[in-house]
Every structure is written in structure tokens, then in C-alpha cells.
């Protein structure tokens, strides 16, 4: 499989560390960070909707609290706590788009803990609440925790936290709990946490596997199999992007087009396998001499293009000359006479992608016409 260095030239698709740990995350921290950023951005609307709906429902439960709590002081404390938590969530709902994506999981976990504490606070103010009904309420909270996109480990921590908090408070606050009911609720909560954890882990696992598969498929579709350079389709996209960027920000942009002199003679004399090897080794030489920001693509046959953002014509010509010498000297060692010609052009305000390619091709034609094995720009 071809390689590509950070999207510039060669990516080794088998180099992705696909291992997923017990927390449902990539072992490769960089890959996990990349996946998480994309996943959170796609889940943002869902997170906002779930949090807002649960907050509104929590406020509506004040109606039931009004009839259940004869003590008005206790009802007032509960109402104040719920209203404050609702205001807090409303602020978070409005500001969530401005929260740093990497910290969003922390904020979601924070609000889940806040609502768990609110549930326990309300439970503590009930006079002789029904233990089984409140136990079902905890199960609903756990299910909601696993519904909201978050880190798998955080889901488990919040679920265990609210379960232990509920059982501890119930044991000390509710006086008429039957032992069989208490143990039954422990079993029910454990089953809900275990089943939800299995479901969440599978979801985390397969989302990451799908992400890797999609990433590899996208890269395969963008790369020339023989040379490992970008293919023409990908180059067209990159060229348009960087031309637009240079036009907008008035930054230099240069383009190099090169091919091998008398490449047909190499194929005819030594065979196509040798010709393919020339392409492969030359592509490797090129990628070793360019930056991560540069775009390297196979234009077709033995023609290659280098797109050099933030690079003026003099720097581009210097690079082309280094490549010309490196390719020639490399193949002298292999007893092959391989030389190359280069056309170099710098973007101007009047250019677009097509005119830039045309001008570079004209420079390459000039290099061929004036003796080959040279750089013209």
C-alpha cells in the first residue's frame, strides 16, 4: 500500500493503530483526538437537544413536587435548586458552540453530575419516598447518561456515582425499605449499567472502526497507487483551494511540473517494470525534499506536479534544481541515465487553476525544447 506523509505525499494505511482500549478509545492518542473532534462536532445538535429536553422535563416535575411535598419550605428549596440548574443549563445551551471542542466532554460530564446531585437533593427532601419508584428514576437517569454522547469512561463514572449516591441516601433516609427490595434494586441498577455499558462500548468501538475504514477509503481514492503521490482528482481540489487562498490573502503560490526525459526509451530499452521503478524512486526522492504543506501529485504517465503554498518563484526554482540534480545523481548509481525537465511558474492575480497549469506546462515545453535536463521558469 502506498504511503503519504501527513497528507503531503505518502501514507501508509497499515500504519494506523486501530487498537481500541477498554475505555472504547483509540490507543493512539492523536488518532483519538482527531476522531473525537469530528465526532463531537457531528453530535453537537443532539447533545444540545437532549440536555434542553431533560432540563425542561425537570422543571415540569415541579408540578408533581408541589403536590407530593406538603412542606412549602422544602418545595421552595427544591424549586430554587431546579430553577438555578435550569438557568445553568440554558447558559450552557447558548454558549455550547463557543466551548472548546476538546473540553466539551468534561462539560457534559459536569452537568450530568449536577443533575445527579439535584436528584439526590430532591430525594433527601421527600418525606418517606417510595424506594422502588425512585430506583426506577435512577435507572432512567443512567439510560439518559448513556444516550448523551460522551467518553465511555465518563458514562460509567456518572452512572456508578448516581447509583451509589442513591443507595447510600436511601439506606439512611428511607426507613421502611425491605431487604429484598433493597437488594433487588441493587441488582436492577447493576444490570442496567452493565447492559448500557456493553451497548455504549460496542457503539464506541464500531464508530471508530467505521472512522478508520472511511479514512482509509478516502485516502485510497486520493492517491496514485504506483507512486504514492496524490492523483489528479485530489490535485484539482488542492489546486483550487490554494489558488483561492492566495487570491484572498495575497500570499505567494508556485507550481512545478516535471517529467523524465525520453521516458519512452527507458520503457523500450529496459521494460515497463524498470520504468515503474523510476517513477517510484523519483517520487520517493521528491517527497524527501518537500515540506508537509506542499502538495505532490502524479499528473499522468511520467508527469508530476508540485504545488508550493507560500513559496515564491525563486524558492520554487531552487527546489526544482535540487530535485533535478537528486534524480540524476540517484540513477547514475544504478547505471541508468535518467534525467528530468522542470517547468516552474508563480501565481499572479490574473491566474486561475487552469492558467497556472497551462503556464507551467509551457515552461516544461521550453525546458524540453532547449536541451532537456533543465529548469525553466
UniProtKB/TrEMBL annotation:
An MF annotation (GO) of this entry: diguanylate cyclase activity
Record carries keyword Cell inner membrane: no
Transmembrane residue ranges: 46-69, 75-94, 106-125, 131-148, 155-174, 180-198
Top-level lineage group: Bacteria
Residues annotated as domain GGDEF: 251-377
InterPro entries cross-referenced by the UniProt entry: Diguanylate_Cyclase, GGDEF_dom, Nucleotide_cyclase, Rev_trsase/Diguanyl_cyclase
UniProt keywords, alphabetically: Membrane, Transmembrane, Transmembrane helix
SMART domains: GGDEF
NCBIfam families: GGDEF
PANTHER family: DIGUANYLATE CYCLASE DGCM-RELATED (PTHR45138:SF9), REGULATORY COMPONENTS OF SENSORY TRANSDUCTION SYSTEM (PTHR45138)
Name of the protein in question: Diguanylate cyclase
Species of provenance: Alkalibaculum sporogenes
